[in-house]
Fold:
Amino acid sequence: MSVRLRPELLLVPVVAGAIWLVLEPRDARSSPAPELAHEQVAEAPDLGQSLLSASGPDGCTAGGTRAPLPAEELNGLTTLPLAATSRGRLVDAATLEPIPEALVVAHRNHAWTDARGRFDAGEPLDGLEELLVLNVTRSTAKHSVPRERWKRAPDGWQVPLEIGPTFRLRFQGVEVADPTSWQGRLARPERDEGWLGLRAGPPPYLRFEEPLPSSPSDAARLEFQSVDELLEGVAEAPGRLGIHEVVVVCRARAALRGRVLDGLGRPRDGIQVSDVQLGETSTETLSAFTGADGGYQLGASQPGRMRLLFSVVGETRRRELELEVPRGLTHAEDLVWDPLLPAGSIRGRLECRSGRGPIEGSLWLRALDGTGYEQSGRFKSPDPTCEFEFKRIPPGRFELSLERSRGFRWSPATLELQAPAQELVFFREDEVGSSAYTLELVDADSGALLPRGLVRSRMASSPVEDQLTGPTFELPRGVAFEWHATAAGHRLASGTERDFVERDGRFVARAVLSPGFVVWLQLSDWSRREFSWGRSHSSRGQSGGGSAYASPARLDGAEILADGVRVAVTDELGHAVLDLGAEPERIEVRLSGWRALPPFFRPREQAARSSITFLMVRE
Structure:
């Protein structure tokens, strides 16, 4: 017997299947969409975990189940449009490790990254061209990450930032209650590297803005120091990128604490305390100012002999203290120092004898009591007259003098006076007029003109005075002089006024410069650095005799070594010129009974300098 089905009954399974598709939870179905989401999450795995529980633009409900698929996915599409998002994750570009505690700045808002590098700027990031990142370390550096470097994840942006390594720290030998009161840096004895503050963690860590240098000697060791300079530590730096666990071996520093009081026992604040610590294998310079309680503290990495120099702005007096300081905290006796009230000001004017401007002059005010006190000032005006003033001058006798201006001398050359002093007049003797001289600096190999260079001129009538100028300089008309010229990457060329020929109203000469290296070097007595650092003593030859002004220590006869080879000897002023065929790796000074600060100089690390100064300290 045959059974004939009614057509309307065939619709029942079709309708039932449609109802099942609507009611079935989305997670129980398979579609191309989860595979796509997995690919996107793989770029930022920490972000992907939140995809299962977060609600909002990613399509998840608060209970962790999906909302119904949109019509596009039901039609078989394999991509889903990602809604605009304000969220992201900041990571190390090299290792994809999260960067916590950084500040991400968007268009109007900013946000801090959490321990996993996540942030929410509170505004859509999709339309921005870049993000600004600050506080990567405890410094003021800023980083810009352009939009093309970001990567999109389902619930935010992955923002890669190129940074250096992060060192997670474990302190050994001391109890560190507050890691943020410590700082760290690379160990580079040849120059002062900036200190970076530590982050609290846990564990506490030190992060670098940039990858460490590739040289193993540069990146092999880290230094740490407490902000109060009582403790220090060292650690190995095992890598240039990524996160590393390191052990910091700590010990006490050689620290000195003291006070400065007046005769009534009241604290003196604002007094500068400078120190040179002569350790067994190192020499350090330290400085501090007394605080509101009159106290000061200095800390050195090695025990040794401390030489302290106390000075006050506006006073000629200085006080010195020398004592042995072992490891640990040493207390110095109170220093009693009554304040000295200023006697007044010194005022006057500079005038051109010819009545033609402009005018300028460098004035030096020196105490005649042998203390080494100096003040200086450079005064200039487009007119033939210029006013000058030194304020709050202490009691005592002083010498006021001027250095030559464009080769012209001043009348009088010096004045001996005491404050207050008014209506002083110095005349520049320039009636003869001046001549312009131009040196064309030429490369010896190519014959091309060099756009920049350095020229020093020296008048025959002033054998101890160099005048630093550019390729074009002016000197009094008809005077005899010698010149010295160089440029970056070249040796020294020298000559006299006889090398110049007149051309279009000025005198022109050529200086042919061969490849090489030139630097002017000066030694300076450390004990006088507060008043004459960076200044040549040569101008004292212009100031006249009979002065009671304390002369600096003689630093002539010092050997100057380039890569261990003697290349020059300092003259009676402590000066030397290094004219070499190639740039050396390092320059050193040797003088019996003295130490040099810094101990050596690396030209390549400060290539723009044409002159260097070594501070010399007595052993």
User: Anything to note?
Assistant: The helical segments are 11-23, 32-42, 45-48, 71-74, 216-219, 529-532.
